[in-house]
């Protein structure tokens, strides 16, 4: 059985894995989630939230090698964590996530997508250091196929997202390359276009790429199926 560490995406926190942890433990795994700096219960001020701080928080939470799952924006910090300490990561799993490419920042990668469905929902702070997602649009971009009550649950917990980590490149080397990796595409994603998820992974071995017919939030839309798929990947 595997030990999973679950890493959330932009504006989210450990709370988004609420339904996943019991599904994974029911299958015999150990599973936990953390709040990255500035998210959930972590009160790190926005000016101190960096990509490096994200990666350090991940590594601080690991005592023995884990299957490290990163959702959406979480693809960047899990990659940097693997570069910094590959011995702590048994496998990387990108869940409809950005996979760092060269010296591109996450913001630059997002702009390379053929469509920008999230941007109309983005509300920038006055100082430009963070953004939030318009609560009236979260269902459309994140949760359109999720159970009743998901939007209300999430809207009370979604937080401001620091811009700095998304405008920081994530150069990767031999350490990162030594860690096995898998990708789960979400084919009804209305945040990261599915066709962009395909292009990010078109050169990957077919055995390392999986698909789910869900929105950007499969941990709410179909946690049982996602848990079974993660089991398959980890084994």
UniProtKB/TrEMBL annotation:
InterPro entries: AB_hydrolase_1 (IPR000073), AB_hydrolase_fold (IPR029058), MES/HNL (IPR045889). Residues 4-228 form the AB hydrolase-1 domain. Pfam families: Abhydrolase_6. Signal peptide: none annotated. One of its GO terms (molecular function) is methyl indole-3-acetate esterase activity. The keyword Hydrolase applies. SUPFAM superfamilies: alpha/beta-Hydrolases. Keywords: Hydrolase. This is Alpha/beta fold hydrolase.
């Amino acid at each position: 059985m595997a030990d999973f560490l679950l890493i959330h995406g932009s504006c989210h926190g450990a709370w988004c894995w609420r339904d996943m942890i019991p599904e994974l433990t029911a299958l015999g795994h150990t599973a936990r989630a953390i709040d990255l700096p500035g998210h959930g219960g972590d009160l790190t001020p926005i000016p101190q939230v960096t990509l490096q701080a994200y990666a350090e928080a991940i590594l601080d939470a690991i005592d023995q090698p884990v299957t490290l799952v990163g959702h959406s924006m979480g693809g960047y910090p899990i990659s940097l964590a693997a570069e910094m300490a590959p011995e702590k990561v048994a496998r990387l799993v990108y869940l409809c996530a950005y996979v760092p490419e060269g010296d591109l920042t996450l913001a630059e990668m997002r702009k390379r997508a053929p469509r920008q469905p999230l941007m109309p929902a983005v509300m920038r702070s006055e100082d430009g250091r963070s953004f939030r997602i318009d609560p009236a649009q979260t269902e459309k971009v994140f949760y359109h196929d999720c159970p009743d009550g998901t939007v209300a649950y999430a809207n009370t917990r979604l937080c401001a997202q620091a811009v700095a980590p998304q405008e920081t490149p994530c150069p990767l080397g031999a350490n990162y390359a030594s860690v096995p990796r898998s990708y789960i595409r979400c084919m009804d994603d209305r945040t990261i276009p599915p066709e962009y998820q395909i292009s990010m992974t078109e050169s990957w071995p077919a055995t390392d790429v999986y698909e789910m017919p869900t929105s950007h939030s499969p941990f709410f839309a179909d946690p049982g199926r996602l848990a079974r798929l993660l089991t398959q990947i980890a084994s």
